Amino acid sequence: MDTEHATQSEQALAAVKAATLIESLPWLLNYRDRVVVVKFGGNAMINDDLKRAFAEDMVYLRTVGLHPVVVHGGGPQISAALKAAGIESEFRGGYRVTTTEAISVVRDVLAGEVNREIVDMMNEHGDLARGVFSDGTDEAKLFEGHVRGVEVDGETFDLGHVGDITDVDPSRVLAEIAAGRIPVVSSIAVNDMDPDSALNVNADAAAAALAIALQASKLIVLTDVPGLYSDWPNRDSLVALITVDELTGLLPSLESGMIPKMTACLDAVVAGVGGATIIDGRIPHSILLEIFTQRGAGTEVIPNSRRSHEQKRGQS
Fold it and tell me: Which residues contact 14 (CB under 8 A, 6 or more apart)?
C-alpha cells in the first residue's frame, strides 16, 4: 500500500511538472530568438545561492532559444574595494561621488571582479558567456556618457567621474549574441569629452539604454522588493501592471531608491521595448516565473495602448 501511494505521489508530481512545462510553451514561442535584457543587482548579487540561481536562469534562457543580455552594477563590491583601498565613499543625492582615484577602483571592480564572477558562473555550464564593457578604445565604446552633477537643497555638487549615458554602440553585444553567447555588460561609460576617462553610470539606466539600442522584447530589473507599491507601505497596493501614463503620474511620489528603476522601465517602454518588469531578485528563479508563466512576477510597465486593448477585450 505504501508503495502504491508513493507511486501515485510521484505520478502527481510528474503531472504538475508536465503542466508547468506546457504552460511555458506559448511564452517560449513568443520570446524565442528575441533579446531579453536583465539588470542584475540587489541581494541577488551578494547571496551565493541567488547568484548561482541567476546564472542557471540565464543559461536556461539561452538554451531554450532566447537571447539574454545581462547588465550589472556592483555597489556593495565597490564600497568594499574602496574601503580596502582607504578611499572614503561619499554620496550626494543618491549618487556616489567618484574621484579620479576612485574611478580606477570602480572600473576594476565592475569590469574585473564582478563581471568575471558572473561570466565564470555561467561558463560552468559550457562556453556560454562573455564580458563586454567600455574601455576607451574606438572598438570598445559600448556606452558613452556626459559628466553630470547633482542638485541637493538648491546647491549643485560636482560628482567627479559620474555621468549620464548619451550614446550606445551595441555592435559588440550583437556580435556575442550572433556567436550564441550571453553578453555580460558592466555599467561603465567612456567620457564623451575625454575618451581616456571612464564614467560611473547608473546600472538601471545602462540596462534601459542597451535594451533600447538592441530593440529588446523585454527589460527585467531585479530588485529587493516584490514590485511597485502605489501606496507604500500599504502591502495591499502592489501593482501588477502599470501603463506609461500611470507611471509618469506616480513617479514623483515614489521612494528615492525606486525612482531610477522605474524611470529605466518607463524610458525603455516609451522608446519601443516590448515591456519592462521589476521583479524580486530575492526569490530563486523569479526570472523564469516572469517570462514563462501566466502569473508572472513583480510589476510590468506596459504601453498605454496595451491597457486599452485589454479593457476592450474584457468588455467583449
Answer: none
H-state helical runs in the chain: 2-23, 25-31, 48-63, 75-84, 100-107, 115-122, 171-178, 203-213, 244-250, 259-270, 286-292, 304-315
Residue 145 near residue 189, CB atoms below 8 Å: yes
Measure the CA–CA gap between 283 and 241, rounded to whole angstroms.
20
- Residue 75 falls in which region: left (phi positive, over 0), alpha (psi -120 to 50) or beta: alpha
What backbone phi and psi angles, to 5 degrees, belong to 225?
A: -135, 160
Q: What is the DSSP letter of 73?
A: -
Per-residue pLDDT of the chain (316 residues; tens, 9 = 90+): 466 666 777 777 777 777 777 777 887 788 889 999 999 988 888 899 999 999 999 999 999 999 999 999 998 899 999 999 999 888 887 788 999 999 999 999 999 999 999 999 999 999 999 999 887 555 568 999 999 988 888 888 899 999 999 999 999 999 999 999 999 999 999 999 888 889 999 999 999 999 999 999 999 999 988 899 887 778 888 899 999 999 999 998 888 788 899 999 999 999 999 999 999 999 999 898 888 876 667 899 999 886 655 543 344 3
For 31, list phi and psi in degrees, rounded to 5. Answer: -100, -5
92 pairs with which residues across the strands?
95
Closest-CA residue to 242 (of 198, 210, 276): 276
SS3 4: helix
Residue for grid cell 476592450: 312
Q: Please give the DSSP secondary-structure letter assigned to residue 284.
A: T
User: Burial letters for 25-48: b for 16+ Cβ neighbours within 10 Å, e otherwise?
Assistant: eebeeebeeebbbbbbbbebbeee
Residue 256, classified by CB atoms within 10 Å of its CB into exposed (0-12), middle (13-18) or buried (19+), is exposed
Closest by Cα among 103, 109, 201 to 146: 201
DSSP letter at 24 equals T
